[in-house]
Amino acid sequence: MAQPTDWIQWQTINGDPITVGDVTVTPQSQSLTVRWPFGGFVWNRPVAVLVERGGQTERIPIVDTTRMVQLGVLGFGLACAAMAFISLSRQRRDSHG
Amino acid sequence: MGEASEGIKMMAAKSQEQVMALVDKLIATARPSAVYGEPVKSGNYTVITASEVTAAGGFGLGSGSYTGPMSPPLEAKETKNEGRPPQPGQEGEGGGGGGGGGGAFTGRPVAVITIGPAGVEVQPVVDPTKMALAFFTALGAMFMMWGRMRKASRG
After folding, report:
1. Residue B19's pLDDT band (cuts 50, 70, 90)
2. Could you tell me if A8 lies within 8 Å of chain B, comparing CB atoms?
3. Which of A46, A72, A88, B102 has the highest Cβ tally under 10 A?
4. So where are chain A's domains?
5. Do the Cβ atoms of B35 and B53 come closer than 8 Å?
């Protein structure tokens, strides 16, 4: 019987390592997979690179600057809209009361 | 079951296999190789691009078959074979099938990874167009909300 984990998967996967000189870089990605009969949806994004040099491994995160600014601006707009809605509701309540 | 029905069933099974193969290809987008490009070497530097990838698809299939008595034949006067009496209803078969599907795939550069003598650097890719679109969308929504508030406060 198919389990929900078969339909939805959220996982972090390491890619094939790339060696340049004495540095080995392993890319890391995060993916959300939703699968249904006769269809599916995949969202895959880079999250970090693992840099190995001299026996030491360092994780360098990949920051999606564009997405952060988008979410920040839209979030600010939603917050303003919510505050305006609350203010309007209070005004109506006060005027009726 | 007649040959036509069997043929329709076989076609439906084959179509289903092809659809599942397409879905498997879609799910294969979940691997890191779909996000990170092939390394490009230039002198002492190696550059790897990193992108955000989104893929979606859906398909539908349908088929049907019929085996049973056919509708009574037309009256003799309505056919070209005038004068011949109508024959009793005979057993017949028929069927049909169809399918459709659609999908979308988007990719957006997120960062560039540079491996050089100084080490590994991750440089984000900034898209001013998308930022401007988000800014003006939020601004437009706030203006609309403000306009409705003014109308509501006057009313």
Report:
1. confident
2. no
3. A46
4. 1-62, 64-97
5. yes
Q: With contact defined as beta carbons under 8 Å apart, do B105 and B72 qualify?
A: no
Tell me the pLDDT tens digit for each residue of A1-49.
Answer: 556 567 899 999 999 999 998 999 999 999 999 998 888 999 999 999 9
Q: Based on the fold, state whether residues B95 and B136 are members of the same structural domain.
A: no
Q: What's the pLDDT tens digit per position in B83-92?
A: 555 455 566 7
Which value does ipTM take for this structure? 0.81
Question: Which chain A residues in 58-87 lie under 8 Å from chain B, judged by CB atoms?
Answer: 60-67, 69-70, 73-74, 76-78, 80-81, 84-85, 87
Strand segments (E) across B82-138: 91-116, 119-124
**3-class SS at B4?**
helix
| Spatial distance between the Cα atoms of A8 and A28, rounded to a whole number of angstroms | 20
Q: Is the residue at B24 inside a domain? A: yes
Three-state SS for B69? strand
pTM, full prediction: 0.73
Same domain, B133 and B90: no
Domain-embedded: residue B135: yes
